[in-house]
Amino acid sequence: MLANAGLWLSGLMVSASLLLAACKSTDGAPRATGAGAPAATSAEPIKIGLLAPFSGPFASLGAQIEGGARAYLAAHGDSIDGRKLELIVRDTTGMAPDVAKRLAQGLIVRDKVDFLAGFALTPNAMAVAPLATEAKKPMVIMNAATSSLTTKSPYIVRVSLTLPQVTAPLATWATRNAIRRVCTLVSDYAPGVDAEEQFIKTFQASGGQIVDSVRVPVQNPDFAPFIQRIKDEKPDAVFAFLPAGSQGIAFMKAFRERGLDQLGIKLIATGDVTEDQLLDAMGDQALGVVTTHHYSAAHESPENTAFKLAFAKVAPQSTRPNFMAVGAYDGMAAIAAVVRALGGQLDGDRVMAAFKGLELESPRGHIRIDPETRDIIQTVYVRKVEKRGDAYYNVEFEQFPDQKDPGK
Ligand code: PHB
C-alpha cells in the first residue's frame, strides 16, 4: 500500500528537467516527438521481463536463455527508434510456479514491463498465463514446450517448439527405419506426457508396437531400475524425453553401462536429451544416438554463424548455445519486429495481432507464427550424434519441413 502511494506520488512529481531529458536522443540532441504524443514517453525503454531459472537444478537453462537474448541485442543493436530494449531478469529458482507467479506480478505491476518473456519450464509458464490475460501483457515463450500452453492465454506466443511437434517426425522416421517394437521413457510431467502420447499415437498409426511406457521422476531419477526393466523387454529401440540441463548425462551413462546397445537396442530421443550444452560431457556414450529437434549448433547457415559469434561474446562461460538460447534470440527478434511494426505503441491486443503470421530467418531456419494458434511452424530435423574434431554434434541428415504442433 505504502509503496504504491510512493510510486504514485513520484509519478506526479516528474520534474521539468526529467521531461527535457526524456526528450533527448541518446546523443543528447533534442528529439522531435510525434504530434500529440506525450513527450516524456518517447525515450522510455521498452521493458522485457525475463523469467527463467538461474539457480537450482535448472540454472543452466536460465543462462542459455539470457545468453540468447543478450546475443540478439549484441548482434542487432539494443535500441529501436531511440528507445532501449531493456531486459529485467528474474530468477524463478527452478520448477517453482508460485515463485514465477510472484515475480511476474512484480514485473507487471512494479516494473511495468511491456513484455513477459523467457519461460524455460512448463509449470512456471502455466502459472503465469492467467496474469498475462488479466493484465493483457504479451508473454513470449522461449522454451516451455507443452502443447496446451498457448491455449492458456490469448496473450501467449511461442517461438520455441512443442514436444508433439518434434516427436511425431521421430515416430515416423522410426517406422521407416525398421524399428517395430519400442519402449518409451519420459520425465513425469506435462511435456513428458505430451511426448509419450504423441510418440505412441504416431508410431502405432504406422504399425509400430509399444512394448512398455515408463515415466521417471522429474528431479533426480535413478535410471538404473528403469533401464533394467527395458533391457528385459528387448525392444528394437527406446524412445526418450528428458528436460534439458542435466539428466541426459546420467541417462546416457546408465543406458551404456547396462549394455543395451550391445543387445542391439537403439536409443532415439527428442533433442532435449542430446542438447548441445551437454553433448561434449556425454562424449562417446552419445555417439550414434538419433534425435529430432528444431535446432542444432551444427546447423549450417549464415544466420547460425552470426548467432554463435554473438552468443560467444555475451556468454563466454557457456561452451556453445543450445536450443533454449536460440528460442530466446528469436523471441527477441520477434519482439523487435513487433515494436517496429507498431511504431512503439505497445497495446497488448495490437502486439498480439502483430505476432500472428510473423516470419523470421532464425539460426535454425525459416520460422513463422501460426496466426490461428500463436504457436510456431518450423522444420524439424533428424540428427545423429557425431564427433567432429574434438567435439560432439547433432548432425542433421533429414528434414520434416513446415511442422505445426500436431497436438492442436
Ligand atoms: C518444459 O518444461 O516445457 C521443458 C523443459 C525442458 C525441455 C523441454 C521442455 O528440454
Question: What brief labels describe this structure?
Answer:
2 domains, six-stranded mixed β-sheet, 408 residues, alpha/beta, Rossmann fold, 13 helices, globular, nine-stranded mixed β-sheet, 40% helix, 15 strands, binds P-hydroxybenzoic acid
Structure in words:
The protein has 408 residues and is an alpha/beta fold. The chain folds into 2 domains: 16-161 and 300-374, Rossmann fold; 163-293 and 380-403, Rossmann fold. It has helices spanning 2-12, 16-22, 59-76, 97-109, 122-135, 163-176, 190-205, 223-233, 247-257, 276-282, 302-314, 323-341, 348-355, and strands at 46-52, 79-80, 83-91, 115-118, 139-141, 156-158, 181-187, 209-216, 237-241, 266-270, 290-293, 359-362, 365-369, 376-388, 391-403. Helix 9 links the parallel strand 9 and strand 10 (266-270). The two termini are 43 Å apart. The structure holds P-hydroxybenzoic acid. The site of P-hydroxybenzoic acid (PHB) has 11 residues, from loops.
